[in-house]
Amino acid sequence: MHALNLDAMHAPEFSEYVNTAPAVVAAGEFVVGIEFNSREAVIASVKEYTIRRGVDYRVYESEPTTFYAKCVQYGTSCHWLIRYCWAIRRYNGSHTCTRSTISQDHAKLDSDTIAEAIKPLVEADPSIKVKFVIAEVQLKFNYTISYRKAWLAKQKAVEKIFGGWESSYEALPTWFEAMVAKEPSAADETMREFDMRYQRLCERGEAYKQWLDRIPRQQYALAYDGGHCWGHMKTNLVECINGALKGACNLPVTAFVKATFYRLNALFTRKRSEVEARISAGQLFSEYATQKIMSNQRSAGIHRQRPYCRIRIQAHTRSNARGPSMSLQSYLDARHNDRYMCLCQAEPQLNL
User: What residue stretches are annotated with the Transposase MuDR plant domain (predicted)?
Assistant: First the structure.
């Protein structure tokens, strides 16, 4: 068996043409002999050079291996030109012209150039606002671009990082198939039990349907399972952790699904470690639930109670806590099976 030469496997195919020197020297000027690894790298460097100096150029030749450009005022007040063929072959120094008009924008500062400049920002936060893109361009290039140009640049940056919308839709089934093949338990089917049972009762007769329709859905959600079917428990659990999905809504569909999967996987993995740590420490509830219970215990110390009915063992409790109507709240407590319960049904609504 032969040993694999990993260094040779990852070496460039044409090593003599790699970019062995920086695109611009320390003084901020091109020099003859500088090599680039692609035509796009040359154009990007020339664009950035002209944008930062507030000058412009006109392209006279643009081929896969050749790029030739001159200053727009070449022959009158400036002699700047540059020719590239795998490396800079001709360069006659910096611009000697000045712009006749002052503009807030630059002709070479197009949406493609801006998209490359803001890729780190978009990758960190795909939901970044357009006004922050404009501010970043102003800070980096000292130009104030239009809202439309900034918006287009952001869309192009998203496409370059996460892929286009059409290709994303095409790639989504393949990604799902790969996930299911790797982990069969990742496939799940949601059955709406309420709709299924509702339909079965309706099939028995119209009287069943009328009786069910008279029950408000809110009442069902609050009363079912002792009132614990409340808040996030009656809808999709993911809706209560939108913080983990921040910015994902602006992504193409495949990138959105991937972000949802990996972020939630990381979230539940972290929460599992936290729960195991609290159980090992002898804690019965989560940190949020513990704080909620302690807060209610402190509030209970200011409650006033007086007997209401000795036969049914009921008491009237008055709380100084302010309710939604900013009035004093009153509750009726009853003793049942050697345990006091509040008859206002507020306990199931604590979202614990």
Answer: 30-83
Region of 255 on the Ramachandran plot (φ > 0 left; ψ -120 to 50 alpha; else beta): alpha
Strand-strand pairing, 314-322 and 88-91:
unpaired
In angstroms, the first-to-last Cα distance of the chain is 62
Looking at the fold, whether 201 and 274 belong to one and the same domain comes out as yes
Neighbours of 69 (CB within 10 A): 22
Q: Is residue 323 part of a domain?
A: yes
Residue that finishes a domain, picked among 162, 180, 204: 162
- Residues 46 and 116 both lie in one domain: no
79, 144: one domain: no
Is residue 20 a part of any domain in this protein? yes
CA 243 from centroid of its chain's CA atoms: 9
82 is written with which tokens? 């540059």
pLDDT mean by block of 10 residues, the chain; 352 residues? 43 42 53 78 83 84 83 84 76 68 70 88 82 89 88 88 81 84 73 72 86 72 50 53 70 81 84 89 84 80 67 63 41 47 48 48
Give the residue numbers spanning the domain of 231: 193-280
